[in-house]
Amino acid sequence: MSEGSHEFYMRCKALNPTVLELCIQRFK
């Protein structure tokens, strides 16, 4: 996972933890 992806991951987690799974799926 790149730094940019990690930042987006943390931002996505902060915005809405319930859609965190969708964010993770995008990285795969």
Automatic annotation (TrEMBL):
It comes from the Eukaryota. This is Uncharacterized protein. The lineage of its organism: Eukaryota, Viridiplantae, Streptophyta, Embryophyta, Tracheophyta.
